[in-house]
Amino acid sequence: MESYSRRWFLGAGATTLLTTGLTACGSSDSTGSSGTVTAFVYGDDATKVQVKAVTRFNASAAAKKAKGRIKLEKVPGTDYPAKLRTAMGSPNAPDVFFNWGGGSIKAYQEANQLVDLTDTIKSDPVLSSGFLPSVLAAGALKGKNYGIPMRGMQPVILFYNKSVFAAQKLQPPTTWAELLDINKKLKAADITPFALGGADIWPELMWLEYLVDRIGGPEVFDRIKNGDASGWGDPAVLKAAETVKQLIDDGAFGKGFSSVSYVNGGAPAVFAKGKAAMHLMGSWEYSTQLGKFPDFAKTNLGWAAFPKYEGGAGDIRNVVGNPTNYWSVNARTGNKDAAIAFLRDCASEAYAKDLVANGDIPTTSNAEKLLDSSPNPEFAKFQYQLVQQAPAFTLSWDQAVDPDVSTPMLTEINKLFVGKSSPAEFVSALKGLK
């Protein structure tokens, strides 16, 4: 499983999707012949799951009834954002396409290029009960569904080094006070509390995502995601920034975190070798460690939920990260019935089994019973239950906001972490992003 490359295209890479103006096609023409439904998919190793789904659907009674067949077009990952943007502004647009939800599809929605699937989902028992509610909601825009989950979940998790914790007689923190106490004890033992790949910036983002949620609740970022820039002025954002500064000043990430990279394996190595006791990272950290430090991954890698912030409005069950990827339907499709029928396959047990076999954790409501066959059933079930029980799953900020906001937002986050701006200056800069 390609851990970082997936994160990049699920996150920062997605921000290039619509950096130039989207050409809105006012035509009501279909995107192709009514019998063929073209589906664009991000072309990586995981596409084998979608290839099998297309084969299964095309041979099904549902395809025959809808009088349609799916034609899958695998677009190389590095080309995907640009090719999709160009195609959606042309007569050769796909009927169905892979995306990241949130900000990655906002311009298409505003140009009336997407089918609103809200009522379709509500009226279809397979779709309405087939997926975890927090995942369906995470890909929505202003409460409307424009996507069907079609890949595995990737929540951000608090990982810890079991051998370090055992040696220091520690337990994973469940509250912020406990986390600060653990930090103090680790520093006394000359161990950096947290690994952090600050050179890449996006690992820093995860801290703010969780702190804003725990302090102010998911509603704070919901306002921002839906285009209300004044949401950055919520007291929870300032408190989160102040909390981050306190962690940095207190040495929670060590002294040189801004020159450590996740991409080149620096942060995972610091963590696996016991130089840092914990690592806040997406669920792909398991596969990263399995590839780089297999003995550590199999024996000493532990995981826990992000702790509760005392007095905060956020539920400790809430999660942040990459809920999944989604299929969306082009409003100009020539065969909406076939497109919707194909999307229903994503809720099937056969589809979920294929995801599990690929090392992914499905977002379907019936997936837990299938996880015994995953590479690490214990970790797989922890992830699944974490998301299943979550009242809210906040989409990674760099995916959720408009693409033209994402890059300057990351720049401001980095300035906060390296001490080039104060928490108040950080908030002021974010409020100015439109």
Quick recap of the structure?
By secondary structure, the chain is α/β, with parallel strands linked by helices. 45% of the residues lie in helices and 13% in strands. The protein has two domains: 219 residues, D-Maltodextrin-Binding Protein, domain 2 (3-Layer(aba) Sandwich); 197 residues, Periplasmic binding protein-like II (D-Maltodextrin-Binding Protein, domain 2).
Topology, element by element:
Elements: H1 3-10, E1 36-43, H2 47-58, H3 61-66, E2 69-76, H4 80-88, E3 96-99, H5 103-110, H6 118-123, H7 125-128, H8 133-138, E4 148-149, E5 154-161, H9 162-167, H10 176-188, E6 192-195, H11 202-216, H12 219-225, H13 235-249, H14 266-272, E7 276-282, H15 285-292, H16 294-299, E8 301-304, E9 319-322, E10 326-329, H17 336-344, H18 349-357, H19 377-388, E11 393-395, H20 397-400, H21 403-417, H22 423-431
Parallel strand pairs: 1-2, 1-3, 6-7, 9-11
Antiparallel strand pairs: 3-10, 4-10, 5-7, 5-8, 5-9
Question: Which features does this protein show?
Answer:
11 strands, D-Maltodextrin-Binding Protein, domain 2, 434 residues, alpha/beta, 6-stranded mixed beta sheet, 5-stranded mixed beta sheet, 2 domains
Description:
By secondary structure, the chain is an alpha/beta fold. The chain folds into 2 domains: 3-153 and 324-391, D-Maltodextrin-Binding Protein, domain 2 (3-Layer(aba) Sandwich); 154-320 and 402-431, Periplasmic binding protein-like II (D-Maltodextrin-Binding Protein, domain 2, 3-Layer(aba) Sandwich), CATH 3.40.190.10. The protein contains 22 helices and 11 strands. The protein has helices spanning 3-10, 47-58, 61-66, 80-88, 103-110, 118-123, 125-128, 133-138, 162-167, 176-188, 202-216, 219-225, 235-249, 266-272, 285-292, 294-299, 336-344, 349-357, 377-388, 397-400, 403-417, 423-431, and strands spanning 36-43, 69-76, 96-99, 148-149, 154-161, 192-195, 276-282, 301-304, 319-322, 326-329, 393-395. The strands form 2 sheets. Strands 5, 6, 7, 8, 9 and 11 form a 6-stranded mixed beta sheet that branches. Strands 2-1-3-10-4 form a 5-stranded mixed beta sheet. Helix 21 runs antiparallel to helix 22. The longest helix has 15 residues, at 202-216. It is globular, with a radius of gyration of 22 Å. 53% of the residues are buried. The model is unreliable at 1-32 (pLDDT under 50). InterPro entries: Bact_solute-bd_prot1 (IPR050490), SBP (IPR006059). This is ABC transporter substrate-binding protein.
